[in-house]
Every structure is written in C-alpha cells, then in structure tokens.
Design brief:
This protein is of the alpha+beta class. It folds into two domains: 129 residues, Jelly Rolls, CATH 2.60.120; 103 residues, Arc Repressor Mutant, subunit A (Orthogonal Bundle). It contains nine helices and seven strands, in the order βββββββααααααααα.
C-alpha cells in the first residue's frame, strides 16, 4: 500500500517551503522544537513527540516556532489510501520512535519494509481506538452544541441534553477529548467564526452574533487570543 522513498533525521532552523503542496506524502515526527501549520482550514501547532502528516494533495501553510529536530519520512501512496492530515495521535510513542530510528538507519530492504509497515500499523490501530472512544455522550453533546451555537449555553444545558450529570459530562470530555465541555464549545464557536470570516461577507458584529458571542468586542478579544490575529487581519490573510 505504501512505498518508502526515504526516511532520515533532520535538523532545521526554518522551512524553505512554507506553503503549497508537498511534492510527496510526508510524515514529520518531532523530537525537539515546535512548528505551527494550517491544513484543511484548521490551524494547529505540534511539538516534541508529536506526529504530523502532510499528504501530497492537501494544501498547507507552516512556520517554525523554534528550531526543529525531526524524523522526515517520504512515501508513495500507491493505492491512493485516504490519508489523515495534520496531527496524528499515537499512544506508544517509544515504539514509534524506535521504528523511525531503525528505518532511518538500516540499508536492508526487508527491514525497511518491516519498519515502514509498523509505523502505519500504529497509525491505523490508534485511529480505530480513537474512533471507538467517541461515545454517545460526546456525540449527543456535540450535536446539541451545533444546534444551539448561537444561544447562551451553560454546562447544565449540555448535561441535560446528553442525559448525564454535570460531573459525569465533565469527566467524559476530559477522558476522551482532554478538555472541558465549555472549552470545547468555545473552540467550535471560534472554528465557525474562522469559516465565516473566510467564506462570507458578514460583518465582524454579525459573525460574533452567529457564533454565540455576547458582543463584537468580546469576540475580537477571544479570537485574537486563540489565533494570534484579530478577526480583521485573519480575514485579510485567509479570507476575502
């Protein structure tokens, strides 16, 4: 399914290619340093012991926040498998590091095949585990948030919609998503705001209202804290 082009350990202080499409499908496993990137309209950062996939058919923008040391794996996707893009969660990071290290060092073709397969087995296994964790409580809560994103919502409203106690809802979100329900709602609102800034002609005040913020001033402050840019500059860079 996947054919190795090359795998090596790399140290960089900056990216020569900061936007566009990767010439080949690539995995970055970061050993040291931090980078920021945008793919599929999502802005994210990645640092030590995190894996990022750059498929050759997904547009990206990226910058180095601090000098990087990382494993750089390039591969062919022979069957055009639907690759994940952006950050990929891997539970057993020591095993993954070991596979990258051996893949980068060995000259034996059979061993290269083995370690390449092992990396993608880990990616697929953790993807399946992650999908199973998305249980009904989180799904019901997310549906409620989407339907009422313009409204004032408290955690009690969300818990009632999911059919659990407030403490039960908070614990479930922490276990599965690593955050609180209200922080997750805030992230959903900001992501919707990003989409409207890029794809609509609504004013800042109208977008704030559509996304459930009390007023434009509060929305601008929260948006700037999340994106490091005020909404007007974000629209200028990524939108209309």
């Amino acid at each position: 399914m996947f054919e190795l082009i090359d795998c090596r350990r790399v140290e960089k202080t900056g990216f020569k290619m900061r936007s566009g499409f990767q010439p080949t499908n690539s995995l970055f496993f970061i050993l040291k340093g931090e980078m920021a990137y945008m793919m599929g309209g999502e802005r994210e950062s990645a640092g030590e012991n995190e894996l990022v996939c750059f498929p050759d058919n997904v547009y990206f923008e990226r910058e180095m926040l601090s000098p990087l040391t990382f494993f750089y794996l390039r591969f062919e996707n022979k069957n055009r498998y639907d690759l994940p893009f952006g950050k990929i969660y891997i539970e057993n990071k020591m095993r993954l590091i070991s596979s990258f290290e051996y893949l980068a060092k060995t000259n034996d073709e059979k061993l290269k095949r083995h370690y390449l397969d092992d990396i993608f087995i880990q990616i697929e296994t953790d993807k399946i585990v992650g999908e199973k964790k998305a249980d009904d409580i989180v799904v019901r809560t997310e549906k409620f948030f989407k339907e009422h994103i313009k409204d004032k919502i408290c955690i009690r409203d969300a818990a009632d919609a999911a059919g659990v106690s407030v403490s039960g809802l908070s614990l479930r979100f922490k276990q599965i998503l690593g955050t609180s329900p209200m922080r997750y709602l805030n992230k959903m609102r900001l992501e919707k705001a990003e989409t409207l800034l890029c794809r609509s002609e609504l004013s800042i005040a109208e977008i704030a209202e559509e996304c459930g913020f009390d007023n434009a001033y509060y929305f601008c402050n929260v948006f700037k804290k999340y994106n490091k840019l005020p909404p007007s500059k974000f629209r200028g860079m990524y939108g209309l």
